[in-house]
Amino acid sequence: MKHKVTPFLMFNDQLEAAMEFYTTTFPDSEIRNVARTAKDGPITSAEFVVGGQVFMGYNGGSYFAFSEGFSLYVDCENQAEVDEYWDKLVKAGATPTACGWIKDPFGLSWQIVPRRFRELIADKNPKKVQAVMEAMMTMMKLDVAELEKAYDAA
Q1: Which keywords label this protein (predicted)?
Q2: Which CATH architecture has domain 1-62?
């Protein structure tokens, strides 16, 4: 299926390593097309899929940098899935920031979020939502048990 809008990521010179990490970390991922400036030269641009989402990538040089203004949101079924992706990112050299956010070694920010968090903050009781949000603000990696504890106590 051809997408009308595709995120385009500008890497310094790490496109190939980033694609390899992303496509081996997330299911439903693949490297589709690559372009090289020479037969055995480095990849300059590529089309790849991560978790079913199509991306275009380019090695644009040090002029380009990612910021937290753009992040990739990972919808995790449960705490085990949160732990799995978080651990894979940390093992690869990612830096945890706050509130379920983590910056990968290529500079791209990810949000690793358990589905239960979204369910809890969708509650009609604003005091419960506030308690969950306040608990989330104290966390690096999101912890479902602690979020539910805050919800139940509110």
Answers
A1: Methyltransferase, Transferase, Ubiquinone
A2: Roll (3.10)
Q: What is the pLDDT of residues 93-122, one digit of tens each?
A: 999 999 999 999 999 999 999 999 999 999
Q: How far apart are CA 104 and CA 49, in angstroms?
A: 17
- Per the rule left: phi > 0, alpha: psi between -120 and 50, beta: everything else, 99 is left
Superfamily (CATH) of domain 66-154: 2,3-Dihydroxybiphenyl 1,2-Dioxygenase, domain 1 (3.10.180.10)
Give the tens place of pLDDT for each residue, 22-65.
999 999 999 999 999 888 888 999 999 999 999 999 999 888 89
pTM recorded for the entire structure: 0.92
Give 85: exposed, middle or buried? Use CB within 10 Å, 0-12, 13-18, 19+. Answer: buried
DSSP state of 119: H
CA 94 to chain CA mean position, Å? 11
